[in-house]
Design brief:
By secondary structure, the chain is of the alpha+beta class. The chain has two domains: 122 residues, Helix Hairpins; 81 residues, HSP40/DNAj peptide-binding domain, CATH 2.60.260.20. Helices cover 30% and strands 27% of the residues. The protein has seven helices and eleven strands. Strand 4 and strand 5 form a beta hairpin. The chain starts with 9 loop residues before the first helix and ends with a helix.
Length: 230
C-alpha cells in the first residue's frame, strides 16, 4: 500500500515549527533543529511527530511556496544549520566540505539516503543534516518533488514525455487523471530505503508551457483520432 502524501499549508507548517511569516530562514532552520531534537525517535520522541516536523520544514523550503517575508535587519542572528546538503547528495551520497568551529575545513563522505534530521559524525562532532532545495528539486520526507514544464495538450489528454530528473533522463507516461490533477507519481524513484525509512517516490508537478510543442506520440495520437472520426 502506498503512503498518503502529506500536504501542509504554509500556516500548518509554521504552526508545527512555531515560526511566523516574518521569521528569517535562519530562524526557521533553528526552530526545525530544536523541534527535530525533541521529536526524534532516538531520543524518546514519536516517529509520526518527527515526520511531521520534517514535512513542515520541507514545506517551508518549497520554492513554489509563497516566499517567507524576511524580518528587518535588526532581527537577531541565529546559528546556521550544522550541515546542509543538496537533494542530489541525499539521493546518491557523496563528499561534502564542512567548516569546523575552529575554522578548519574537512571533507565528509556521506551515505546515500540521508533525510533531514539525520545525524552524522564528523570527527568528534555530531552534525544534523538539512536538505536544501536546489534547481527546483526539493525533498519532502522520503520523496523527491520537482516541477516540470509540459505542452498544454499533455495536461488535457495525457501522453508520454521525456524529462530530466535527479535520476537522469526518464520517459514518463502521464495518464488522463494525473494530467488533469497536474501531478504524477513515479514509483520508487525517490530517496533510497535507509534504516527504518522506506524507498521514496518522485512526484512531478506538471506546469503548462505554451512555448512547448506536443510530444510526437501525442501528436500522432491526435492525427489518428482525427482520421478515425473522418
Amino acid at each position: 500500500m502506498s503512503r498518503p502524501v502529506l500536504e501542509f499549508t504554509l500556516k500548518d507548517a509554521r504552526e508545527v515549527l512555531g515560526v511566523s511569516s516574518a521569521s528569517t530562514p535562519a530562524e526557521v532552520r533553528q526552530a526545525f533543529r530544536e523541534a527535530a531534537k525533541r521529536a526524534h525517535p532516538d531520543t524518546g520522541g514519536d516517529e509520526s511527530a518527527f515526520h511531521q516536523v520534517v514535512e513542515a520544514y520541507n514545506r517551508l523550503q518549497d520554492p513554489l511556496s509563497e516566499r517567507l517575508v524576511h524580518a528587518p535587519a535588526r532581527a537577531r542572528p541565529t546559528p546556521e544549520p550544522d550541515l546542509e546538503i543538496s537533494p542530489e547528495v541525499a539521493l546518491e551520497g557523496g563528499e561534502v566540505d564542512h567548516r569546523l568551529p575552529d575554522g578548519d575545513m574537512i571533507r565528509i563522505t556521506l551515505p546515500a539516503g540521508l533525510r533531514s534530521g539525520d545525524k552524522v559524525r564528523a570527527g568528534e562532532a555530531e552534525l544534523c543534516i538539512y536538505i536544501r532545495a536546489q534547481d527546483g528539486v526539493i525533498v519532502r520526507g522520503d520523496d523527491l518533488w520537482m516541477t516540470v514544464k509540459v505542452a498544454p495538450g499533455l495536461l488535457k489528454k495525457g501522453g508520454r514525455v521525456s524529462l530530466d530528473t535527479p535520476l537522469g533522463r526518464r520517459s514518463v507516461w502521464i495518464d488522463r487523471k494525473a494530467a488533469e490533477r497536474g501531478l504524477v507519481r513515479v514509483e520508487g524513484e525517490g530517496l533510497p530505503a535507509r534504516g527504518r525509512r522506506a524507498q521514496g517516490h518522485l512526484f512531478l508537478r506538471l506546469c503548462a508551457s505554451p512555448g512547448l510543442a506536443d510530444s510526437a506520440a501525442l501528436a500522432l495520437l491526435r492525427r489518428f483520432a482525427a482520421a478515425w472520426a473522418a
